[in-house]
Amino acid sequence: MHQKAIIHSKDLLDSSSDNPLLREGIIPAPMKILTVLTYYRPHTSGLTIYAERLARAFAQRGHQVTVMTSQYDKSLPREEIMDGVKIIRVPVALRISKGVIAP
Questions:
Q1: Which of 15, 61, 87, 94 has the most CB atoms lying inside 10 A of its own CB?
Q2: pLDDT for the residue numbered 5
Q3: What is the pTM of this model?
């Protein structure tokens, strides 16, 4: 006779190694996600808003999310964590119009 498994919704979002669904391979292990783009928050554009929403959604689901972007404003911190997303800002070496060249 087969036993029915009861799946709780909290287990679907739990990415810890003691989650039975993760151990059994029913749900995949958390991913390490890197997004690279020229501008990110606090700069506002359609792309930055979309990238931020996507990064936050993945982080809320237990994935490790990092955004690498330019430090277009020197007052911005080089690294910070915002809404569970690690943000790394690379210093700008040269500006060409709205574009930047970073090492």
A1: 87
A2: 58
A3: 0.73
Cα dihedral 50, 72, 101, 40, rounded to 10, equals -10
Query: SS3 for 36?
Result: strand
Cis bond upstream, residue 28 (ω within 30): no
What is the reported pLDDT for 99? 85
Residue 50 phi/psi, 5° resolution?
A: -65, -45
User: Consecutive sets of 10 residues in the chain, 103 residues long: mean pLDDT of each?
Assistant: 57 58 72 94 94 94 94 95 96 89 84
Kindly provide the residue ranges of all beta strands, DSSP E only, lying in 1-103, ordered along the sequence.
Answer: 32-36, 64-71, 79-82, 85-91, 94-96, 99-101
Contact yes or no for 52/40 (Cβ under 8 A): yes
At residue 101, the 3 state secondary structure works out as strand
Question: Residue 102 has what DSSP assignment?
Answer: -
